[in-house]
Amino acid sequence: MKFNDNFLKYLHMITKEKRKARTIEEFHQRFIDYPLEKKQTVGNKKSFPLIKSILVTLFIPGVVLAGYQFQNKVESPVRPEPSPEKITTQIKQDQLKQQTRDKYQNRIKSIQALLKEAKELIAQLDYPEDLTDLPAPAEFSKELNLLETSLRTRQEQEQISRIYRADVSKIKHQEEADKRQARHQAELDNNYRIIEQEQKKRYQEQVELMESSRAQARARQEKLERLNQERVRQQREALEKEYKVEQARQQQVKLQQQLREQQAHGIRYQNISFIEPITGMGFIRVKAGTFMMGSPEKDVDRFFNETLHEVNLSKDYYLGKYEVTQREWEVIMGKNPSYFKNCGENCPVDNVSWNKVQEFIRRLNEKAKARGERGGFRLPTEAEWEYAARAGTKTPFSFGENINTSQVNYNGNEPYNGGRKGKYRVKTIEAYSLQGNAWGFHAMHGNVWEWVSDVYVSYPESSVTDPDVQSGGSRRVSRGGSWDDYAGYCRSSFRGRLKPNSSDNDLGFRLARSSY
């Protein structure tokens, strides 16, 4: 398709002026101020007035507006992360753009309407044949078609441009999204590094705190160890001091014990007539004599079986200075039956029956005969025992009318005949630890009951000589009272009676031996 030269020149002129203009207003001003001769004559030909006005009305605004808008269309910037203020501003900008777009569409529609009207006007022209110097209507129709084609082309270009801008916008948006993602990832990495640094810092602080705690714990432990060592040292010194004190005390006790033993040895063998070599028992020789056995009716707490009568002992005899001890029993019998073993070997043997005593006597005599001695050990008769216990006295006790716990081991809570209360030891004591009577016999009153050889029968009212009752009853006599008894039972005349097989923790004996 070929364009009219005048049209091309005119279009060239308009395009040239548009390029010189920087704004649409400046373009209109430049076009208005264009020289009149240039506007009216192009290529030495006159322009047709009606066609000129149509071209000016249709072509210039349409082409210029389309070209200007196409070349100067500003692409939408990539939206940042919206904030309330930015969202409001963006809405206003979108509204303004929409208004501009609507205005542009309205202008296009107006131009299309003008083109249609121009076509109709050209179709109505009656072109005179003699006007050869003016363009023919067909040429104007072609030019209008060209303009319409150009306008459609502009519209297509505008649509392509919009698609392009949309694609570019999408790409930019994607790039922005990638950048935001990258920034977000960078922030995450940075936050992770910060968190990791904080964790390392906290871990280091915890390690330092643990080390500090361990150091403090070690210091406390060392302090406790020092305190414990000091405490142990003090305790050791205190124990050593106590040990030394205890050693000194034990040494003192030992010395006192040795002294007592020496004294006891002296007491034990004082007035001794002979010593039994196997057990070491000491015996005192008792001279023959006559005494009143039993108790007078005036004695306090006198029993019916204590009939006062005269007894004549025609022969001398030996009687143990003290009760048979646990050590002496164990030497003969091999086993200590005593309840009060903790009292010591010098305490009287207890918990022995009359029958067991007979076994002890049998073995002792056998051992004596095996050594070439005559033996002859026995229990004293009841008369021999009371004769030695009285030691020439006629009072209830060999010590007088009354006794106390410093003289006799009995129940001090139950004194005799209104006497003063004394100590209640609740056990036996050493056989010769307390005071002896006038003849040197110890513990004839209290400590343990002592078996005698006689069967229990009533006393005769007449005088008798050397009584030794072995019939007339089933019980055996015990004399002297014990550590657990009322003081009245410890009287020289008091008589106890028990079965021969009886034994208790307050029952012992002492031995006698004939002098011939």
Structure overview:
With 516 residues, the chain is an alpha+beta fold. It has nine helices and twelve strands. The protein has helices at 5-20, 24-32, 36-40, 49-72, 84-124, 137-268, 326-333, 354-370, 382-390, and strands at 274-275, 282-286, 289-293, 309-313, 317-320, 377-378, 449-455, 464-465, 476-479, 495-498, 507-509, 512-514. A five-stranded antiparallel β-sheet has the order 1-2-5-12-6. A hairpin with a 6-residue loop joins β1 (274-275) and β2 (282-286). α1 (5-20) packs across α2 (24-32).
Helix/strand layout:
Blueprint: H1 5-20, H2 24-32, H3 36-40, H4 49-72, H5 84-124, H6 137-268, E1 274-275, E2 282-286, E3 289-293, E4 309-313, E5 317-320, H7 326-333, H8 354-370, E6 377-378, H9 382-390, E7 449-455, E8 464-465, E9 476-479, E10 495-498, E11 507-509, E12 512-514
Parallel strand pairs: 4-8, 7-11
Antiparallel strand pairs: 1-2, 2-5, 3-4, 5-12, 6-12, 7-9, 9-10
Observed structural traits:
rod-shaped, 516 residues, alpha+beta, 9 helices
**Number of H/I helices:** 9
C-alpha Rg (nearest Å): 77 Å
Structural class: alpha+beta
Strand content: 5-15%
Order of helices and strands: HHHHHHEEEEEHHEHEEEEEE
What portion of residues is helical? 40-55%
Strand order of the largest sheet: 1-2-5-12-6
Major sheet: 5 strands, antiparallel
Distance between the termini: 190 Å
Unreliable stretches covering 5 or more consecutive residues:
31-52, 68-78
Overall mean pLDDT: 81
Shape: rod-shaped
Total DSSP E strands: 12
